[in-house]
Amino acid sequence: MIRRYVPIALVVALLATACSPGDSNETAPSDTSTSTEAPDTTLPSETTTTEAADPDFPVTIEAPNGVVTIESRPERIVSIAPTSTEVLFAIGAGPQVVAVDSLSNYPGHAPVTDLSAFTPSVEAIASYEPDLVFLSFDPGDIVAGLDAIGIPVILHGTALSIDDAYTQWGQVGAATGHVDEAAAVVEDTIESIESAIEALPEGTDALSYYYELDPTFYSITSSTFIGGLLAPTGMTNIADVVDPDGFGYPQLTAEYILDTDPSLVLLADTKCCGQTADSVSERPGWDTLSAVANDSVVELDDDIASRWGPRIADLVEDVVVAILEMALADG
Amino acid sequence: MNAGRPSGTRLHWWWIGAAALVLLSAIVLGVMVGPVRISPYAIVGSMLDRLPFIEVDTGLSDRTEAILWEIRMPRVVLAVLVGSMLSAAGAGYQGVFRNPLADPYLLGAGAGAGLGATVAIAYGPSTSGWIIDPLPLAAFVGAVAGVALAYILGYTVRSGRTSVTLILAGVAVAAFLTAIQTFLQQRESDTLREVYGWILGSLNTAGWSEVVMVTPYVVVCLAGILAGRRLLDVLAVGDTEAGTLGVKPGRVRLVFVVFATLGTAAVVSVSGLIGFVGIIVPHTVRLLTSASYRVVVPLSILLGGAFLVAADVIARVAVSPSEIPIGVVTAMIGAPFFAVVLRTSKGVVS
């Protein structure tokens, strides 16, 4: 996990700051074992110069918007992307963040401003005097505008796969001087998802799910990020017959959803549109669904479901728990 | 509207018969066809089963029965109501404003409903736990308020209160409300897709509760427009001339605007802004039969319902089991169809 050769003391110190409380028990043993495998850790020059001449910088990031060079450790980061905000705080770069957009509601102590993630303005961003900006999309050529005034920008668009997300987190780590913490967060997420999947009962390939983006039955196929995240559960996505490798966000008809009778209904419209297991059961005809009868309507957190930050592991766990509960009820 | 009347002004009974037949065929098609295949025999059996004293074992599961009765039927019925109302309102507006481009959204009903819906979606409380869903209510209030605003603005113009000043007031109000709506939509960008989906229009989530909600409005407003259709013919000769015939154009216009607005607001509140119906259906009727409103209004009601049911069938089966927004279908199928009617017809629009 930790690639660079550093003494155990430094590793321990790093872990103490990097890992959020609760995670430390899980990751500490594996980390110490990695560092003992690295025997020649006695180069004094590396250990003494942590802050003075930061060895992590300058750094070049091969971001989706091109190669971005960051000269020194950024201390005034502006994040115009809720996902980037979550990643920054998860890897311990929170103290370096001076402003986040109006939709960045997690974690709660992020410095929320009225900067818009949808129609950001170069001037409004520049007024925070950032030394690094994160964006998730580029409306009105914001990237070019920030480039023109010499502010480094990393454009991390919607992750298309989990690996894509992990790559982005790694880049956020490299860009902010938190390489190891980012690697640890990636490792944690992989482990959490794997252990959740291992906990699944037999026979999940006989199950199917309907994933609801809004109450007009917009859904996702397996070719989307969330679809890929849920693929290891073995369940069939009922939207896949619509366009298995197309655009990925079809609008289904109520008739079709009722007819396929998915084992699990996953609601990603609880916050946006106030949908609950109760409101689903009250929809005309929906009381005939097995998922409604079996209490298998899962209320997900829209925010987690629409981002590709470290909390995606929670989403997988929620779904796995729902499958386990269903299996328990059956058995 | 001083052009020739191709086929006279009388409403022939066979026109009504043909239009009713078209509507009936569309309804049958709408009930029979859907993403889920249900055999026609089972559908007929299931319908007979609902009649008192008749027991038919259709062999349909509870879920298929629910698909048929809770999802498909209300959707077809709602499409009839929405299509009829929008077409009648469009015909009414074209008459009172003597403007062939008038549609039900002319005086700001559409923009007002859009603003109302956006406010409800962006700032409304969570809809669960409400007795009345705030979204249709807000859309209804917005539509009525938009038209009222346009009417007051147009009516208080000092020089010459003609139909043109009213239309211009409507254009101004619509532009203003749309600007506010767009502003709010951009501010609350997390609700963008929901707002956008509503504006495109859909019958995807229609149920009997929506049908029950709009039916009283639609019945009253259709009856009102139907009853006054002769007055539309009188207005066609011009305000001054109509005045000499004992008709008060301003008052007639107000009555029609009230009926058309209430009806439009009601249907828009449950279906979103389905465009194009209010323009092409009355014009198609005009081109095929007569320019007299005694003919145009009743036939538009029948054929408007049929048109929207047919459009909705396409919306739900063309890319089944996925859905196309019905507003896209009405324009995509409606526009070429209208072009064909326009080219082949001998009738005169205006």
Task: Give me the secondary-structure topology.
The complex is a heterodimer of chains A (331) and B (350).
Chain A: H1 8-18, H2 24-36, H3 44-48, E1 59-63, E2 66-70, E3 77-80, H4 82-90, E4 97-100, H5 122-126, E5 132-135, H6 142-148, E6 153-155, H7 162-176, H8 179-198, E7 208-212, H9 225-230, E8 236-237, H10 254-260, E9 264-267, H11 270-273, H12 277-282, H13 290-293, E10 297-299, H14 302-306, H15 312-330
Parallel strand pairs in A: 3-4, 3-5, 5-6, 7-8, 7-9, 9-10
Antiparallel strand pairs in A: 1-2
Helix pairs in contact in A: 1-2, 7-8, 8-15
Chain B: H1 13-32, H2 40-50, H3 62-96, H4 109-123, H5 134-155, H6 163-187, H7 192-200, H8 208-227, H9 229-235, H10 239-244, H11 249-271, H12 277-288, H13 293-317, H14 326-344
Number of strands of chain A: 10
What fraction of residues of chain A sit in β-strands?
5-15%
Shape of chain A: elongated
Task: Find the biggest chain interface.
Answer: A-B, 36 and 38 residues
Shape of chain B: globular
What does this molecule look like?
The complex is a heterodimer of chains A (331) and B (350). By secondary structure, chain A is of the alpha/beta class. Chain A has 15 helices and ten strands. Chain A has helices at 8-18, 24-36, 44-48, 82-90, 122-126, 142-148, 162-176, 179-198, 225-230, 254-260, 270-273, 277-282, 290-293, 302-306, 312-330, and strands spanning 59-63, 66-70, 77-80, 97-100, 132-135, 153-155, 208-212, 236-237, 264-267, 297-299. In chain A, the strands form three sheets. Chain A has a four-stranded parallel sheet, sandwiched between helices. Chain A is elongated, with a radius of gyration of 22 Å. Chain A starts with 7 loop residues before the first helix and ends with a helix. The model of chain A is unreliable at 1-50 (pLDDT under 50). By secondary structure, chain B is mainly alpha-helical. Chain B has helices spanning 13-32, 40-50, 62-96, 109-123, 134-155, 163-187, 192-200, 208-227, 229-235, 239-244, 249-271, 277-288, 293-317, 326-344. Chain B is globular and about 70 Å long. Classes of the chains: A alpha/beta (331), B mainly alpha (350). The A-B interface holds A 103, 116-119, 214-218, 241-243, 250-256, 258-259, 261, 272-276, 278-279, 283-285, 287-289 and B 34-36, 62-64, 66-67, 69-72, 74, 126-128, 186-187, 189-194, 197, 202, 204-205, 207-209, 316, 319-323, 325.
